[in-house]
């Protein structure tokens, strides 16, 4: 895709999310939800039915645009996230992605011998043009309402699927390769890191205003192993990303599920924000990272199965835990992982309203104290 000009897109009307990521003052705590365009929304299910399959949905820019915008039409969210899948990159490497009914993603040609690993190459980005077309179309149709987030899986998380051939409960095959043949694993991870960096930069060229790296399976690694086989390669990706486009800063978020143990180390790789899962204490996390990065998170997704008052109570606890907002710190409210497909849509309405209302009140209280 050729370099884009910001003049082809409408001016941004709500930049609260981007300001929070860059640790600038905001009038309230912005929020979005991981997997916010998904099966909990009846309108998403209807579009997916029309598309015929998940890949039919993800690979068609018109459908991808439609489902990306659906949660924004329903809720006052502060960011849109590209509707896609983390496995688009290994699919473009020729591994043959397909979705088995009731079993999730699978690869026809997983990397399970030395010959397959050594033949692995970063994909031709033209194989992913449908993703970049979707980014541009979504950004255009957002018409400046909120920023658009692009994303990729981390090199390690992609490698888990590429070696296992799909999802895994124990990561037996990928960890066996890691310990038996670290040379092969490093080859996969170097290849993935180059591919992810190029992929995210192409999304930025196409119109993404922030990008996120999902390290979903980093927390499955042992201490010491995580740093060498996941964190080092995320650092490599972050170092290659465009941090400015058309004179505008492009924030980068990294998220390792189960990565609370390594928060300080994750905050050191050069990203603007670190996502937290629900096992981490938000207030203590803020103390641990200081002014280094913004934080994103981290409500337990299952709170959304509780009643409205319980949801509001949990929002209040999280905002209180984070504490009063200050310049140099930033907080984006999110779940600690993706929203469940069984979540009642009305619970999300309660959540969004509570976050905005309570975080505004928190700032007003802070101002009153400062002026008294």
TrEMBL record:
<keyword id="KW-0456">Lyase</keyword>
<dbReference type="Pfam" id="PF01208">
    <property type="entry name" value="URO-D"/>
</dbReference>
<dbReference type="GO" id="GO:0005829">
    <property type="term" value="C:cytosol"/>
</dbReference>
<keyword id="KW-0627">Porphyrin biosynthesis</keyword>
<dbReference type="GO" id="GO:0004853">
    <property type="term" value="F:uroporphyrinogen decarboxylase activity"/>
</dbReference>
<feature type="binding site">
    <location>
        <position position="161"/>
    </location>
    <ligand>
        <name>substrate</name>
    </ligand>
</feature>
<comment type="similarity">
    <text>Belongs to the uroporphyrinogen decarboxylase family.</text>
</comment>
<keyword id="KW-0210">Decarboxylase</keyword>
<feature type="site" description="Transition state stabilizer">
    <location>
        <position position="85"/>
    </location>
</feature>
<feature type="binding site">
    <location>
        <position position="216"/>
    </location>
    <ligand>
        <name>substrate</name>
    </ligand>
</feature>
<comment type="subunit">
    <text>Homodimer.</text>
</comment>
<dbReference type="InterPro" id="IPR006361">
    <property type="entry name" value="Uroporphyrinogen_deCO2ase_HemE"/>
</dbReference>
<feature type="binding site">
    <location>
        <position position="85"/>
    </location>
    <ligand>
        <name>substrate</name>
    </ligand>
</feature>
<keyword id="KW-0963">Cytoplasm</keyword>
<dbReference type="InterPro" id="IPR000257">
    <property type="entry name" value="Uroporphyrinogen_deCOase"/>
</dbReference>
<dbReference type="InterPro" id="IPR038071">
    <property type="entry name" value="UROD/MetE-like_sf"/>
</dbReference>
<feature type="binding site">
    <location>
        <begin position="35"/>
        <end position="39"/>
    </location>
    <ligand>
        <name>substrate</name>
    </ligand>
</feature>
<comment type="function">
    <text>Catalyzes the decarboxylation of four acetate groups of uroporphyrinogen-III to yield coproporphyrinogen-III.</text>
</comment>
<protein>
    <recommendedName>
        <fullName>Uroporphyrinogen decarboxylase</fullName>
        <ecNumber>4.1.1.37</ecNumber>
    </recommendedName>
</protein>
<feature type="binding site">
    <location>
        <position position="337"/>
    </location>
    <ligand>
        <name>substrate</name>
    </ligand>
</feature>
<comment type="pathway">
    <text>Porphyrin-containing compound metabolism; protoporphyrin-IX biosynthesis; coproporphyrinogen-III from 5-aminolevulinate: step 4/4.</text>
</comment>
<dbReference type="GO" id="GO:0019353">
    <property type="term" value="P:protoporphyrinogen IX biosynthetic process from glutamate"/>
</dbReference>
<feature type="domain" description="Uroporphyrinogen decarboxylase (URO-D)">
    <location>
        <begin position="149"/>
        <end position="165"/>
    </location>
</feature>
<feature type="domain" description="Uroporphyrinogen decarboxylase (URO-D)">
    <location>
        <begin position="30"/>
        <end position="39"/>
    </location>
</feature>
């Amino acid at each position: 895709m050729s370099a884009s000009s910001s003049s082809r897109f409408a001016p941004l009307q709500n930049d609260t999310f981007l300001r929070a990521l860059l640790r600038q003052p905001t009038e309230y705590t912005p929020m979005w939800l991981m997997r916010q365009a998904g099966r909990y929304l009846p309108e998403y299910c209807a579009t997916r039915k029309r598309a015929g399959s998940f890949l039919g949905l993800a690979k068609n820019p018109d459908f991808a645009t439609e489902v990306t915008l659906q949660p924004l039409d329903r809720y006052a969210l502060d960011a849109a996230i590209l509707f896609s899948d983390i496995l688009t990159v290994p699919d473009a490497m020729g591994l043959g992605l397909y979705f088995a009914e009731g079993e999730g993603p699978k690869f026809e040609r997983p990397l399970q011998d030395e010959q397959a690993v050594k033949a692995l190459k970063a994909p031709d980005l033209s194989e992913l043009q449908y993703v970049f077309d979707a980014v541009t179309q979504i950004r255009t149709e957002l018409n400046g309402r909120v920023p658009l987030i692009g994303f990729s899986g981390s090199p390690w998380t992609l490698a888990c699927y590429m070696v296992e051939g799909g999802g895994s409960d124990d990561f037996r095959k990928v960890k066996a390769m890691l310990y038996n043949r670290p040379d092969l694993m490093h080859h996969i991870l170097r290849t993935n890191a180059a591919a992810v960096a190029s992929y995210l930069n192409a999304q930025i060229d196409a119109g993404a205003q922030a990008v996120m790296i999902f390290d979903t399976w980093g927390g499955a690694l042992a201490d010491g192993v995580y740093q060498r086989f996941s964190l080092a390669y995320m650092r490599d990706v972050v170092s290659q990303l465009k941090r400015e486009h058309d004179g505008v800063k492009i924030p980068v978020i990294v998220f390792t599920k189960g990565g609370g143990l390594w928060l300080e180390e994750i905050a050191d790789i050069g990203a603007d924000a670190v996502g937290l899962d629900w096992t981490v204490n938000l207030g203590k996390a803020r103390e641990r990272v200081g002014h280094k990065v913004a934080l994103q998170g981290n409500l337990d997704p299952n709170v959304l199965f509780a009643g409205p008052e319980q949801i509001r109570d949990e929002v209040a606890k999280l905002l209180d835990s984070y504490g009063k907002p200050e310049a140099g710190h930033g907080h984006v409210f999110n779940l600690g992982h993706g929203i469940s497909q069984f979540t009642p849509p009305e619970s999300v309405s309660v959540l969004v309203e509570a976050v905005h209302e309570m975080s505004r009140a928190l700032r007003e209280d802070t101002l009153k104290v400062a002026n008294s």
